[in-house]
Amino acid sequence: MRIGVLGCAGRMGRSLVRQIASTPGCVLAAVCDRPDFPGIGGDAGVLADLEPLGVTVAEGPAAVFAACEAVIDFTSPLVTAGHVALAVAHRCALVLGTTGLSGDVEAVLAEAGSRIAIVAAPNMSLGVNLLAGLVKRVAQTLESSFDIEVLEMHHRAKVDAPSGTALALGRAAAAGRGVAFEDAAVRVRDGHTGARRPGEIGFAVLRGGDVVGDHVVMFAGDGERIELAHRASNRDIYARGAVTAALWTRGRPPGLYGMADVLGL
Ligand code: NAD
Predict the structure, then answer these.
(1) Considering 83, 90, 136, 154, which one is annotated as catalytic?
(2) Residue 32 Cβ < 6 Å to ligand 1
(3) How is the chain classified by DSSP, letter by letter?
(4) What atom in ligand 1 is closest to the CA of residue 97?
(5) CATH second-level architecture of 126-232?
């Protein structure tokens, strides 16, 4: 399968290039990064610490969509809508890992899902998607007197907060409890907040060092606390999930899918 990577110079982009190069059935067909990236015209393999792959870093995404059956996008939410439009124009499947998407961009994705196959997930690892299923089940099982809090930590360069994964875990908890996530979520606490309101789903965010991604969902009751946690030590888990998703789109009808669909969870 001919697969492309947008943002090939990024932390995830380089991991994706290595993953595609080592996965049977995949061919790295085209890659790009931002037009002002100094490595435009260089070799994607060299950029990813591999031997040269003979794939040149293009300066724009159009050439990537034109050359591929599926394109993997881990770049910036500011350019997601443009990438979705190109995917639709080229009838190309899209695997979207970028986080921090606005409501407007989510609406664009939902619309495009009626025309092409899109897999969008704020976390493409098997472990986190399993965790989301467990969180939903625990929230379903426990009485609502258990307070739900989501704690996440990421490296110092991460630009959005709470992480897309933390929000997805909060949504899984809300779904398990049968409540509207937006009504229950408390994303920030500061100053004299008053006591915790019953039913809140709270978030706490830590940033520092080179932490790839830690998430803990706590169910805090009277006299006991249950914690479900996932700790990523390597970005390859996300790249592996994204490449699995790209292969899964082949022959798939149009739709906006998640990793639970890809992994059959
Ligand atoms: P990064 O900053 O290391 O890489 C982003 C890359 O995208 C950079 O090389 C940048 O130059 C490039 N880029 C930006 N705008 C572009 C454009 N218009 N066209 C082409 N390339 C462009 O960031 P990262 O750590 O690799 O993360 C990227 C995104 O993926 C973030 O939103 C992050 O939260 C998300 N992420 C998702 C998962 C997941 O499993 N879904 C896992 C890790 C990171």
Answers:
(1) 154
(2) yes
(3) -EEEEESTTSHHHHHHHHHHHTSTT-EEEEEE--TT-TTTTSBHHHHTTSS--S-BEESSSHHHHHH-SEEEE-S-GGGHHHHHHHHHHTT-EEEE------HHHHHHHHHHTTTSEEEE-S---HHHHHHHHHHHHHHHHS-TTSEEEEEEEE-TT--SSS-HHHHHHHHHHHHHHTS-HHHHEE----SS--SPPTT-EEEEEEE-TT--EEEEEEEE-SS-EEEEEEEE--THHHHHHHHHHHHHTTTPPSEEE-HHHHHT-
(4) 41
(5) 2-Layer Sandwich (3.30)
pLDDT, tens only, 77-96: 999 999 999 999 999 999 99
Average pLDDT over residues 58-70: 97
Q: How confident is the model at residue 106 (pLDDT cuts 50, 70, 90)?
A: very high
- The model's pTM: 0.90
On average, the pLDDT of the chain sits at 97
Instruction: List the chain domain ranges.
Output: 2-120+235-263, 126-232
Q: 2-120+235-263 adopts what CATH topology?
A: Rossmann fold (3.40.50)
Q: How confident is the model at residue 265 (pLDDT cuts 50, 70, 90)?
A: confident
Q: To test the ligand 1 pocket, which listed residue (14, 76, 79) has its Cβ within 8 A of the most ligand atoms?
A: 76
Is there a shared CATH topology between the 2-120+235-263 domain and the 126-232 domain?
Answer: no
Q: How far is the CA of 251 from the centre of ligand 1 (A)?
A: 27
Q: Tell me, using a 6 A CB cutoff, whether residue 97 lines ligand 1.
A: yes
What distance in angstroms lies between residue 11's CA and the mean position of ligand 1's atoms? 7
76 lines ligand 1 (CB under 6 A): yes
154 is catalytic: yes
